[in-house]
Design brief:
There is one protein chain. It contains 2 helices and 10 strands, in the order αβββββββββαβ. With 182 residues, the chain is an alpha+beta fold. It folds into 2 domains: 30 residues; 143 residues, Protein Transport Mog1p, Chain A (3-Layer(aba) Sandwich). The strands form 2 sheets. It has a 7-stranded antiparallel sheet, with helices on one face. The longest helix is centred in the N-terminal third of the chain and has 25 residues. The protein is globular, with a radius of gyration of 21 Å.
Length: 182
């Protein structure tokens, strides 16, 4: 082999290695454009947007999700929708602790730390007749902050409803993106 051929072969080998390494960082993620372990939660990646949830916490959502006009009675609530799913949250002392779903079909539960807080994640097939979505996935934070007035914990429950089971990966990425102000 002449020196020029060796040089070209060497350059191609370097380019191939660099392309494979770069591809593995985003392709390992279950959600397109969202890195598997995003070192900067304020920069969620292409196809996603960072949302300030009414000044209470931050999360990342697919960029086509639109904020809906909803009202709560005894807590702060919010909702976002697109054609595939609906994301809702309830931030207050009476947020759903997700304890009544263990008998649902395909029920799965996972405990983990998200945003420095203890969290419970559930997933199941939604069999409610009044729901237009087939699957339900949610995360509950039992103690986001202590309520200074009534000595009760402020909690957060965020749920995602969708029809394609593969969208659970998007729900999980949303949960993992949650960050708190305090």
């Amino acid at each position: 082999m002449n020196p020029r051929s060796i040089f070209v072969f060497f350059c191609l080998a370097i380019l191939l290695c660099c392309h494979t390494a770069q591809k593995s960082e985003t392709s390992a993620s279950p959600v397109a454009g969202m890195p598997k372990q995003n070192p900067d939660p304020t920069n969620p990646g292409p196809g996603w947007k960072r949302v300030d949830a009414d000044g209470l916490f931050f999360l990342s959502l697919p960029e086509d999700m639109k904020k809906q006009n909803v009202r709560g009675i005894d807590s702060s609530v919010g909702q976002y929708r697109n054609g595939r799913m609906v994301v809702s949250f309830d931030y207050g002392i009476y947020s759903n602790p997700l304890e009544s779903y263990s008998d649902k079909p395909d029920y799965k539960e996972n405990l983990k730390n998200i945003g420095g807080k203890k969290a419970k994640i559930v997933f199941f097939s939604n069999t409610r007749a009044d729901s237009k979505y087939k699957y339900y996935s949610a995360v509950h934070f039992p103690e986001v902050e202590k309520n200074r007035f009534a000595n009760m914990n402020i909690k957060l429950t965020l749920d995602v409803e969708f029809n394609e089971e593969s969208n659970n990966a998007i729900a999980q990425a949303i949960f993992e993106s949650i960050a708190f102000r305090n």
